[in-house]
Amino acid sequence: MTIPYRDLTSKALCLLIILTIVLGCRRVKDAPSPMEVIITNTGIEMVKIPEGWFDMGSSSGSPDESPLHKVWISSFWMDRYEVIQEQFKKFQISDPSHFKDPNNPLEQINWTDAILFCNERSRAEGLEPCYDEESWECNFQANGYRLPTEAEWEYACRAGTRTNFSFGNDVRNLKNHAWFAENSSDRTHPVGQKKSNPWGLYDMYGNVSEWCNDFYSENYYKNSDQKNPRGPMKGKERVLRGGAWNSSSDSCRSSYRSSDPSIDDTCLASDAIGFRCVRNASNNTSPGKNMVKEKQNRKTSKTGLVYDDIYLEHKTTPGHPETSGRLVAITQRLKTSGLYSQLIKLSPKPVPYEWLTTVHSPEYIQRVKKSCENNAGYLDSMDVPISTQSYEAALVAAGGVLSAIDAVVEKKVTNAFCAVRPPGHHALKDKAMGFCIFNNVAVGTRYIQKKHNLSDVLIVDWDVHHGNGTQAMFYDDPSVLYFSTHRYPFYPGTGSETEKGDGQGLNYNINVPLPIGSGDADYLRAFKEKLEPAALAFSPDFVLISAGFDAHKDDLLGGMKVTAEGFAQLTQIVKEISEKCCEGRLVSVLEGGYGLEGLAASVEAHIRVLTR
Ligand SMILES: [Zn+2]
After folding, report:
1. 426 is catalytic
2. Is the pTM of this model over 0.70?
3. Any idea of the CA torsion for 130, 133, 135, 136, to the nearest 10 degrees?
4. Which residues contact 319 (CB under 8 A, 6 or more apart)?
């Protein structure tokens, strides 16, 4: 065994910890408001925006964005995407767009034609049109469609954020969220290709600027109403919000304002201007008769569970901490707690060879197979004992992660936990290490990218040991952000803070080494201060957790003091990242955890948060 059971420096480190422990646990942020998404019976997806306060404007932007002021917005439904050309033509209105494509945003539309579309759409669904077609006045009491007010637009765009963009202040990430001057090739693009904002709205930055209902006035914020402001009473120009394909990054900011004459000749209308519709929701808490299909309800997550009895057939040597009893303890605990029946059971299959070879060499795979067939006793070192069925179990462990990923991408579940063994995060391209045979999470990462075309993957590894295998596999790869908290110095010896990635992958590898005896507060601090900002800036398309529970206070190997509740709080932080960045797509994969009671309690607490 290469894993040290005792650490001679532990006393000195304990003293250091006592001296450096700062405060208690900080309160974890409330989960984002549940977002309901429906499809109207004219086939348009809408997101329910919750009521609430927000800070409108900016104290550092253009003069017309100040003063920063508090605004209350009532609940409303908002189109998830900009109105596309195909939808516009459904109402037999000729499509004025310059960049023709049914899925591109409608453009070259003036304000009055946009509101006429709102009225047509209302009539098509048996709703009361909001606009008087002679005076162009908006009846805000009507239940039909209208343009958003400027305040509604900014509130929805910010989605609870206060930064320049809903993904933070780092303008380099704008390319992931928007088609704008730097990446648009001077044209519009089909809507929904870039990342959504935290509330699931697409193309709020870039593609086309959007008409709002309000007249524009540079000084309006100085005397704006506090509740549902609707702009000045009169004006010549109407407000435009959100950047367009030809915009600079600065004019894509959440608080940026522009305007255009409201009544114009269609021939003179701009090919950089489109719109999206909203509808009141405050008196309409149920979707109502025109909302035919509830597509998604985020109030609770459906959580998948991957498990198979084959995992018990990977037999280790007597007295070895990585035993089949670990999975028995977990499944029993899930059953006695009543959680088991709430989980969607996902049946794993052996990982196909072509996916295993995305991270392991064919020679190594062959060596694992032969060693198991020949009952060699161990693989590469005494550290990795094997039995005749270990190869099969290891294939199904990696395959289980792929099943979970498929279920999440296909929206059968929101997220999933894989109760698999052997674990994976120490396994290298051509070498077994530290109880691990195939690197389950690494195979899953390549599968997400190549099978499902999701480019950026965040791996959060909170196992007490550093995931040297995973780090090595993605060390020069900027499409994978690897974040690890681990006891250091400790097995396997890697994981110092100076290991930050290489080449293009520089700064996409974040190690947070922690001293022996670290507890909930230390882990939470690392997650809030190091993981959260980096992950939101990275904005992953999928989140994987290397969920080892050997940092639990009662673990046989770990020497740390994390509680089951601590693991629940870490789970909440990672889950929120996935909700903000990638519609909650998250798969958690068991790594270590060797005190059976602590392991079972921690897995239960972890899954409870996933199901919330
Ligand atoms: Zn471990």
Report:
1. yes
2. no
3. 50
4. none
